[in-house]
Every structure is written in structure tokens, then in C-alpha cells.
Amino acid sequence: MLEDLDRDIRDHIERETEDNIALGMAPEEARYAAVRKFGNVTRMKEETREVWSFVWLEQLLQDIRLGFRMLRKSPGFTAVAILTLALGIGANTAIFSVINGVLLSPPPYKNPQQLIVMKQNDSLPNVTDIQKQAQAFSQGGGINVMPMEYTGGTEPVQVRIGLVNAGFLETLGVQPMLGRIISPGEDVRGGPRFAVVSYPFWQTYLGSDPQAMNKEVLLDGNSYTVIGVMPASFVPPVEHADVFVSLWVGYPGAAAYRGVHFMHTYWRLKPSFTLAQAQQEMATIDHWLAERYPAEEKERKTHLVSLHEWLVGDVRPALLVLFGAVGLVLLIACANFASLLMVRAFAGRQELVIRAALGAGRGRLIRKALTESVLLSVLGGAAGLLFAQWGTSMLLALKPEKLARLSGIHMDTRVLLFVLVVSVLTGIVFGMAPVWIAARADVAEALKESGRSTTASTRGHSIRGILVTSELAVALVLLVGAGLLIKGFSRLRSMNPGFNSANVMTMYLQLPATRYGEIPKQTQFRRELLTRLNFLPGVQAAMVTDIPLGGNYVDHSFVIDGRPPVAVGAEPEVQTLSVMGNYFQVMQIPLRAGRDFTALDREGQPLVAIVNEQMVREFFSRENPLGARIHWARDEGPPHWMTIIGVVGDVKHSGLNQPTDSAVYTPFSQSDEAWRRFMTLAIRARDASPGLVEEVKRQIWSLDGQIPVGDVHAMDELIAVSLAQQRFNMLLLGLFAALALILAAVGIYGAMAYAANQRTHEIGIRTALGAQRRDVLRLVMRDGARIALFGIASGIAGALALTHLMASLLFEVKPTDPATFAGVAILLAFVVLAACYIPARRAMRVDPMVALRYE
User: Fold this and answer.
1) How far apart are CA 26 and CA 33, in angstroms?
2) How far is CA 297 from CA 282, 532, 548, in A?
3) How far apart are CA 45 and CA 683, in angstroms?
4) 278 to each of 116, 118, 123, 134, how far by Cα in Å?
5) If you average pLDDT over residues 175-194, what whole number do you get?
6) Which pLDDT belongs to residue 404?
């Protein structure tokens, strides 16, 4: 109406303007006169608009009040509808909270869109050269985190030291809460021992002292002066660090060597450069470094990614799959919600007909129905927030190993807006079915009893059948996905790690450089400690540089005696580990050929090595490795040849789902690498109790009371931690699939119960004509079987189309695994028939005389 009024006014003004011009008025004057003449009409239109707005608002408030009254009159229906939606919306909100905190929120640094990462580690000399040559970067820096001893408390402890260059903190754009950061002039060989501490370190070890500047802390036997305290919100992008010191000062031996690629490097793009331009420039710098330093950089190829992509890249597929899965759960919940509204609409259609007969327009009826459904969905969303709080806490409690930025997961404005939008859209979209029924109601026909019992019920039965079939299809997709993950996780968990983890305890030690800088002192400490530990009743102890599944190991380039020369920088690499004691016996790593190390394989004796089976397959596939000689590439002076004396089984060092690397084991006592001051104790005992841990600590501190003991774990714990991400994916998808199965079972039970109730009169007639109870059972079960058949067929088609999206999450399982599909289909069919059996049993007990009078 208002639109027509606007058009009429415009037409009158145009005609009046033309008439005024014809009378000799100037165009501007003619237009002004026409507008004044019809100003009263315009004001009337505005007043009409205001009245209409007021009436519309009043009607809306009236509909809301009526909606609340209707919901209070049906508490059972209201509770079931709200609970159904709360489960679906709550699960979605919990996962969205994780996605929001991990994937959507930017990293907590200054202008994070400018921060990029080099995917491979680098050395400090390379970082310096790149800073000089690159035009795309305004700043750059790197960090390596390693444990060091802190001896300022009652007993020595291990803290994590961030070895950085002066540009690291400045590149991230984070200012200290107190004091300052290390300046470029202090980041030099022989520079002052300054330290910037983290907020937790300041709280725990410095007592939150605001006057902590210039205090001394003892790290690795050296005294460092505190010059700054970082804010509580600051965490390095990947690795947690307690204290930041200059790499040149804290580890000068590694700082000078170009081949020591152990720094994670971060760079800030200039505003005028793109990531693609920086990548192109880095290709030129890579070529320059490879030509100038072929021994260390011959195979150099830098890959740049944004910091945000680097932080979330590994977990994005899993989170998106889980978000898709929980979205399917919401669809099932919404289908149940729509089915409930359908039943309610049919039950109350007589009221709608009466309202229509009394003059209520279709728009009024539609608005009333939509208001009620939106009220229910908003209440369901509010209840879903409570479920989401609990669900988010559960997700955080699972602590998946690779889920970055856990601290960013919380309920914020974006999450609340998500809940509001999902709730309102759910109420509108899935409340349309009863709205459609209300809009199509025929007053004359609906007032007839037969019209109510045939046409409307048949139409509603068809819609509910479609909803239930869709629920079953979606539930099958989720169950197949969960089944694939469970099967893959089971195979991963049954993988042989290459050692026996039962009753093995591990702990990490690092000898301070100030007291154990020379190899003889290191060897003496290790030998005496193992002697003491092996004298403990029921204890077998040994040492290794890096324990399996510990997340770290060192690679070395090597040369095989008698093989054709290899270009400098192109030598093959192997994982290198030093051991002492009966390490292979303690870890029960099988000896495949040759012999184990003995006490004779010590300093001053011919150098020996043991290799794993993967190294034999890769480098000695056509010859016997025993007796072959290797040496580390590019060693200073004459080659130090090591003779291979044994072959041991492969060990999964990097993860049960990762390929096995070639590995070389050497005795600690024959090592000429004084920097290998770190070691992990492996202790097998009949009773790996906390008392044993304390006894081991006493033996260590009886030799040196200033050596901290850290990372105490049972080997079974390390295996569990290495499977944390896969377990997280499996548990969540399994939980969502179980929830979907329950909701689908409830949905089909409700649909079949309602259908059986609607056919009470028909069942009575059939029974009166001689139908047996089994005939009634067959009648009801046949409808359920038909729905199950269509739902399972649709679900299998959907699963075949969608499961390939989760291929990266599966281990040794195909996305189209036939056994999983068949098992899930059988399970779902059983659940459907069980859900149909209860209303079928009730229908079998119908009294024919009662049924014939039912309507």
C-alpha cells in the first residue's frame, strides 16, 4: 500500500510540474509549487507509516506474549523441543569456540598479517645474511628453545630457555611489561649476560617482585641479570620459553656455525611487499647461499608461509571435519524439532481454522507460527550455551597435542553472535513446515472431520517421513566417519613401536657446560650414575640422547667407505643417537644381526656403530652391512671411521604414524661431540613407582646436587601423548555420531508412534475383520523398514561422497572401507527396527471396539 502511495504521489508531482511549466513558471519554481501542493499527502503518508509501524510492533509483542503462554500450556512439548535444540546448538557452539580461538582469531602480535615464517629451521649466520640482503622484510629474528638448569630455588629445576637474536621479540612487536629487551649491541659474542623473563617465571621464581630488574638468576651455572619481564599474554608462536637470552651469549658454540639449522625464524613483511614477492626474493637469496656455502646450503630451498597459516595448518582439516560433523548433528536435531512442530501444528489445526474463519489473514497465522518456533529455538540456543560451556571445558581437558593456541578458546562476542544467528535461523527455516500448513489451510475443508483426518494427516505423514529419512542418512554419514576413525586409531594403536614400553620410566638430564664442558667429565658422570642405578634392586638402567617419541633428535650427514664420492652438501643424512649401558636390552629393541655394544667399546678403542634395519634397506640393500665403515661428513681433520658391528630393529622415533628414519647408534664414551651434554635415562623396573623416581633423583644428586631432573614420564605416557591428536578426533567424532544416532532413534520412534496413533481407526477395522497381531506388527514394521531402507541408501551415497574429505585423518584405512560401511548399515537398521518395534507392540494391543470409535 505504502509503495503504491509513493508511486501515486510521484506521478502527481510530475504532472503538476509539467502543468506549471506550461503556465510559464521556471522549472525550479514549478517543481517547488508541485511539491508544496502535495505536501499534505506526503505528511499523511508519513503519519500512516508511523501508525503502521506501531501496529506492527504491538502485534509482534502480542504474538510473543501469546507464544510464551502457549509454551507454558505445553511444558512437555516445550522441554523436549528445547532439549533437542540445546544438544545440537550446544555441540556446534563448543566446536565453533575452538574454531574461533584457533582458526579465526589472529595471532596475538602486532599487525599479525605481516608476520611470516620460514617452514624449515635456519642458522644464525643465515638469518644475518638474509637480513642484509632481503628487501621484503622490515625485521626478522629467530629462537631455539632448550632446557637449562635453574638453581635459585630449594632444588635444581629445568627451565626452558629461549635462545634468540636481538630481532626476535622486536619482530613480534611485543613490548615487555617491565624493563626492556636485549638490544643489538648486547647480542654479540662475549656480550653481557642479560635475561628477559616470562610472566610465569617472574611470578614463580621472582615472587612477582616489581623491583626484579637487575636481579641475578643462575642458569646453567652462569649468572644472568634480569633486564625485562614479558606481559602475561605473551607466548612465543610455538615453543614455550621461561627465559630469553642472546644466542651469542647463551650458546656461542652453535651461534657461529652456519650448518647448525636449529632456529625457528620469523619475519615481518614491509607493507609494500606481498608473500609471493618475498618468496621470489628468497629464491634468489637461497641460490646465493647455496653457491657461496655449498657444504651447508647446497640443497637449500626456503618455503614461506604466513604465521597464521603455519600455526593452524596441521589442525585445520581435523577441526573443519569436526565442525562439519557437528553441523550434521544440528541438522538431525532440527529435523526432530521440525517434526515436533508438525505434530503440534496438526494437533492445533482446528484452532488455526477457527482463527481463519473469524477473519485472521494468512500473514497473521504465519507470523504467529513463526514467532512460536523462533521463541523455542532462541530458548534452545540459550540452553545450548550451557551445554557449550561444558563441552568447551571437555575439549580443553582432552588437550590434543597439536591443537595450537588453547588459551584463545573462550566464549566471546563472535561465539554469542554465532549462537544467536543459528538459533534464529533454525526457528525460521525449520518452523516453515507448520507455517506452510497454516498458510495452506482451507477453511471449508478443514472444518469437515474427514478433511482433517485424511488430507492434512497424509500430507504431514509424508513430510515427517522425509525428515526421518534425512535424519537416518545424516546419522549414517557420521557413524561411518566415526567408524573409519576408530578403525584407523585401533590400527595405529596396535602398531609395533619397535620397543617394549611396559614398566619403563624416562627422565631428562642435561649437564651444565660450566662443569661438564669436556667429554671425559661427561663420560665419568654417566658411567658412575649407571653403575649406581643398576645396583638398585630390580632396576635396569641405560642412557640415550633422545628417547623414542620424545619429539626431537639430531641428523648427521655421513659417508660410506668405498662408495663413489658425493658432492659436498649432497651427502645423505641419518638420525644419530648416542647410548650407554645395555640400552637395547633395557628398551627390548631386538638385535637382528651382529653384536651389541660392550664395556670394551669405550674411549681409546676402535670406533663402532650399530644401525637399524631401515638404514640397511636404504643404504646396504645389496651387501652385508656388518664390517662396513662410515664417518660423519665434513669432519675436521682425517676421517673418524666407525665400523658397523650390529643391526637392530626399527624404532618409531617420530610417531607411530610416521615412517621410520635410518638411524645410527654410537657409544657416548666414543663421542667427540662435547655439546651432547644432554641425555635421557631409560629405567626398566618391576615397580615403576613414585618412590623409584625419588630414589633415582637421590642417586643423581649424590653425584652432583646441582643437576635438575625433568620430563619424568612412563614410556606408556609418551605413546599416549603421541596419539593425542588422533584420539581427540576419534573421541569427538564418535561422540557426535552417538548423539546423532540417539537423536535419529528418538526421531523415528516419535514418527512411528505418531503414525501408529493416527492409524488407530484403521487398525481397529483390520482387527475386526480378522487381522492377527502379527499382521498388525508387520503393517507398522513395514513402514519403518521402508524408511530405514531409504535412509540407509541415501546415507551410504552421502558417506561415499563425503568421507574422502577426511582421508588425511585416517591411518591405513580407506575412506570407502566396505567393512565399516556394512557394519554401520547393519547397526543403523537394527536401531531403526528397535525404535519401530515399541509403537508396533502398542498397536498390537489395540482394542478393536475402542479403535472403531477413535478419531
Assistant:
1) 11
2) 13, 45, 29
3) 90
4) 10, 11, 19, 8
5) 91
6) 58
Overall residue count recorded for the chain in this entry: 855
Rounded to whole angstroms, the Cα distance separating 581 from 600 reads: 12
Whose cell is 555441540? That residue is 91
The three three-digit cell numbers of residue 24, written as one number:
510559464
DSSP H or E run through 371? helix 362-398
DSSP H helices, 74-228, are: 75-99, 124-133, 167-172, 199-205
Q: Cell numbers at residue 139, please?
A: 625485521
- CA 736 – CA 322 distance, rounded (Å): 9
What is the spatial distance between Cα 103 and Cα 768, in angstroms, rounded to a whole number? 65
741 touches 572 (CB < 8 A):
no
Supply the DSSP symbol for 187.
S
In the chain, the N- to C-terminal Cα span, in Å, equals 45
Alpha carbon distance 676, 668 (integer Å)? 9
Alpha carbons within 13 angstroms on the beta-carbon side of residue 581 total 30
pLDDT tens digits, one per residue of 511-570: 888 888 888 999 999 999 999 999 988 889 999 988 888 767 788 889 999 888 888 777
The type of residue at 221 is: G
Q: Which residues are 678's β-sheet partners?
A: 510
159 has which bridge partners?
A: 148
Query: What single letter denotes the amino acid at residue 765?
Result: I
Query: What totals of helices (H) and strands (E) does the chain contain, helices first?
Result: 30, 21
Q: Is 84 exposed, middle or buried (0-12, 13-18, 19+ CB in 10 A)?
A: buried
Helix ranges (H only) for 570-665 are 583-586, 613-619
What is the Cβ-side half-sphere exposure of residue 378, based on CA atoms within 13 angstroms? Answer: 14
Give the rounded distance of the alpha carbon of 721 from its chain centre.
15
- The total of other beta-carbon atoms located within 10 Å of residue 11's CB is 10
**Non-local CB neighbours of 18 within 8 Å, separated by 6+ positions:** 30
Which residue's entry shows cell 612465543?
236
Sign of the CA dihedral with 354 first, then 355, 360, and 364 last: negative
Instruction: Tally Cβ neighbours within 10 Å of residue 28.
Output: 8
Q: Is 844 a residue whose pLDDT tops 50?
A: yes
Helix 75-99 to helix 724-758 angle (10° resolution) is: 160
Nearest alpha-carbon partner for 264 in 407, 403, 164, 406: 164
How many C-beta atoms surround the C-beta of residue 167 within 10 A? Answer: 23
pLDDT of residue 451: 43
Quote the cell numbers at residue 45. 503518508
Separation CA 210–CA 199 (nearest Å): 12
10 Å CB burial of residue 211 (0-12, 13-18, 19+) is: exposed
Task: Look at strands 642-648 and 591-594 and give their pairing.
Answer: antiparallel
Cell of 328: 550434521
Please give the backbone phi and psi of residue 845, each rounded to the nearest 5 degrees, phi first. -95, 10
CB 651 within 8 Å of CB 611: no
For 506, the grid coordinates are 624416562
Taking only the tens place, the pLDDT of each residue in 262-286 is 899 999 999 999 999 999 999 999 9
Q: What is the mean pLDDT of the chain?
A: 81
Neighbours of 13 (CB within 10 A): 18
The one-letter amino acid at 704: D
Q: How far apart are CA 499 and CA 718, in angstroms?
A: 13
User: Among 731, 28, 11, 747, which Cα is nearest to 340's?
Assistant: 747
* DSSP classification of residue 606: P
Q: Reduced to 3 states, what is the DSSP secondary structure of residue 713?
A: strand
> Distance of CA 402 to CAs 84, 102, 239, 318, 319, Å?
32, 11, 12, 11, 11
Among residues 308, 307, 318, 306, which one has the least CA distance to residue 98? 318
DSSP β-ladder status, 608-612 and 642-648 = parallel
Q: By 3-state DSSP, what share of the chain in percent is helix, strand and coil, each rounded to 5?
A: 55, 15, 30
